[in-house]
Specification:
The complex is a heterodimer of chains A (about 260) and B (about 325). Chain A has one domain (about 10-255). Chain A is built from 12 helices and no strands. Chain A has helices at about 10-20, 30-35, 40-65, 70-85, 100-115, 115-125, 135-145, 155-180, 185-195, 205-210, 215-240, 245-255. In chain A, helix 3 runs antiparallel to helix 4, helix 9 crosses helix 11 (about 215-240) and helix 11 packs across helix 12 (about 245-255). Chain A is globular. Chain B has about 325 residues and is of the alpha+beta class. Chain B folds into 3 domains: about 15-105, Phosphorylase Kinase, domain 1; about 110-280, Transferase(Phosphotransferase), domain 1, CATH 1.10.510.10; about 295-325. Helices cover about 40% and strands about 15% of the residues of chain B. Chain B has helices at about 5-15, 65-80, 110-115, 120-140, 175-185, 190-195, 210-215, 225-240, 250-260, 270-280, 295-305, 305-325, and strands at about 25-35, 40-45, 50-55, 90-95, 100-105, 110, 145, 155, 160-165, 170. The termini of chain B are far apart. The chains are: A mainly alpha (about 260), B alpha+beta (about 325). The interface between A and B is large, with 47 and 37 residues.
């Protein structure tokens, strides 16, 4: 069994639903455009993609930056995305002025700063359903995380966003590899490029472990890396508002030094 | 979904950047560094059985702009055949469409890392002269580097010096038709952005080593004197690290003239700068540091001290001989 194959939580279901190929047309900035669509279904789907990538960074950021306990942070995270869904926050986003990531973080800060629990609950009412987010896993990750200093909170948010996008991309790669019968390619990527100690082995040793020739090891790895890159960049295309932002965020995500 | 630790994120990021070399005739070994447009990797040329360096563009190249720039850089280097300029071996395309070129694998260190190992002022100046020779050669071929800095200069194990990273190089307008055909119509990134005729463009270069006219984005004003400025800054860097007391006034004056704010006040060419450095090494007066009559007389004495000592010794002997008689 693949090291990451495991029982699906409700959260995974959201991701599977959201991240399947062809969720959005292959137009640029589709998420930003779709989020502003007059069709509520289209808008809803765009925002769900956004939630998939951002809910953990937002939750952890509220926990650490605003020093909220986990119940308050859960409530505020739900509130944040509720307002994003219902209040059309994204309509005010201008890609020329800021990265989407920065815009969202500023929105979170504003929301928490203007916290008014009673009013929020009133606004949300009893009819709106909570998003099925796996806060327990996020809380567990926080326990093993290094707590950043207050002045490093922006970096922390960025790092959590990278983690979220990479995790989603890996999950999609795993699904695609399974569909194409290339599970070994994916397992090899996990073993050699992600797990600790993989790089310490030679291709020959890895090949023996996986029952592959050296040339197959390099070919399989090249395939998995290429596909991973493609998926990450596809996600990024959807989640950025301009070519310039796309390039800058690609640099943040993949260390690509594009001018 | 699998939770990724910080270390796993870094490993995954590094892996995603690794080029897929299938079908190129090269096998990936490891990463050497990051350039202006992408990464540089150590690869094995499987046909010739030797190691070379492979430079490949970053993975973002939506409109082919980076590919064109990398190709342009390779063509510029290819025509600058000089011992001080790293030679290009091959150009190609990876299976994922990224353009790459291979070049000689330089076994050595970047100048900024190597500077501490250099000896005193004379050794540093000799290294500097080699840099000047390579840049001067490029200027003779109508190429201005525009990003000269210690990080873009390699010093080999045997003291050889190689000027690297010609990605921002500017072709001067005096190119021949044949040159234009060889390099293509692709322009440097700032010229692409706004055109040379406007006189202003995108600012490309490195603060501290970039000439003021370059920092102001005055594309049309950038010529060989912009490289003279950068070389002056490199000279200052080398002298600051010499660690043998204050920099001699004449050398400080050379570096100062090279890095003059006004391009017209700088040396007219890299040869002139190199010539002043050579004069200093030979104990001759330098253009950048006019001397008074006393200093000039003293230099004359120093230069002719052997003859002077001989004559003085003769006169003393003669005087003693007269007195003795």
């Amino acid at each position: 069994m693949s090291p990451i194959a495991r029982s699906h939580t409700m959260q995974d279901d959201i991701h599977l639903r959201l991240r399947g190929p062809g969720t959005f047309p292959a137009t640029r900035w589709s998420l930003i455009v779709a989020a502003r669509s007059t069709h509520s279904e289209e808008r809803q789907r765009a925002l769900e993609v956004l939630i998939a990538a951002y809910w953990k960074p937002v939750y952890k950021y509220i926990r650490l930056r605003w020093e909220k306990d986990n119940e308050q942070a859960k409530d505020l995270t739900q509130d944040f995305f509720f307002q994003l869904l219902e209040k059309g926050f994204l309509a005010t986003y201008d890609p020329q002025r800021a990265r989407l990531r920065t815009f969202l973080r500023v929105c979170v800060d504003r929301l928490v700063a203007n916290e008014d629990k009673a009013a929020r609950r009133l606004k949300r009412g009893g009819e709106v359903q909570f998003l099925p987010l796996d806060f327990e896993s996020a809380e567990g990750e926080l326990r093993s995380a290094e707590i950043p200093s207050p002045e490093r909170m922006d970096d922390f948010f960025e790092r959590e966003w990278v983690r979220s996008v990479f995790s989603l991309s890996l999950e999609r790669l795993r699904q695609e590899c399974e569909t194409r019968g290339k599970q070994t390619h994916f397992r090899l990527l996990e073993f050699y490029d992600i797990d600790e100690g993989g790089k310490e082995l030679t291709y020959e040793q890895v090949g023996r472990q996986f029952g592959l020739k050296i040339s197959d090891v390099t070919n399989y790895l090249a395939y998995a890396r290429r596909e991973f890159r493609r998926i990450v960049l596809e996600q990024l295309r959807e989640m950025t508002g301009s070519e310039e932002e796309f390039r800058r965020e690609a640099r943040t995500l993949l260390g690509v030094d594009a001018p | 979904m699998k939770w990724l630790s910080d270390q796993a994120l870094d490993r995954l990021r590094a892996a995603a950047e690794m080029p897929d070399l299938n079908g190129t005739g090269y096998a990936l070994l490891d990463k050497l560094g990051e350039g202006g447009m992408g990464g540089v990797f150590r690869v094995q040329d499987t046909t010739l059985g030797r190691q070379v360096a492979l430079k490949v563009i970053g993975i973002i190249d939506s409109n082919g702009e980076l590919s064109a720039r990398l190709l342009r850089e390779a063509k510029i280097i290819a025509r600058l055949e000089h011992p001080g300029i790293v030679p290009v071996h091959d150009v190609g395309t990876l299976p994922d469409g990224r353009v790459f070129y291979t070049m000689k694998l330089v076994q050595g260190q970047r100048l900024d890392q190597h500077a501490a190992e250099l000896g005193g002022v004379p050794e540093r100046l000799r290294t500097f002269q080699k840099i000047c020779e390579a840049v001067s050669f490029a200027h003779a071929h109508d190429v201005v580097h525009r990003d000269l800095k210690p990080q873009n200069i390699m010093v080999g194990r045997f003291g050889e010096v190689l000027v690297m990273d010609w990605g921002l190089a500017k072709l001067l307008n005096t190119r021949t038709a044949m040159d234009a055909e060889n390099i293509g119509t692709e322009k440097a990134p700032d010229e692409q952005a706004l055109g040379t005729d406007t006189g202003h463009g995108v600012i490309l270069g490195t603060p501290g080593y970039m000439a003021p006219e370059q920092a102001r984005g005055e594309v049309a004003a950038i010529g060989p004197r912009a490289d003279v400025y950068s070389l002056g800054a490199v000279l200052k860097f080398l002298l600051d690290g010499a660690g043998s007391g204050p920099t001699p006034k004449a050398l400080a004056a050379i570096a100062g003239k090279a890095t003059a704010e006004d391009a017209e006040q700088r040396y007219g060419s890299v040869e002139e700068l190199a010539s002043d450095v050579a004069h200093y090494l030979d104990g001759l007066p330098v253009r950048a540091y006019p001397e008074g009559p006393i200093r000039r007389a003293w230099r004359w004495v120093i230069k002719n001290r052997a003859w002077i000592l001989l004559i003085v010794a003769y006169l003393v002997m003669r005087a003693l001989f007269i007195l003795w008689r």
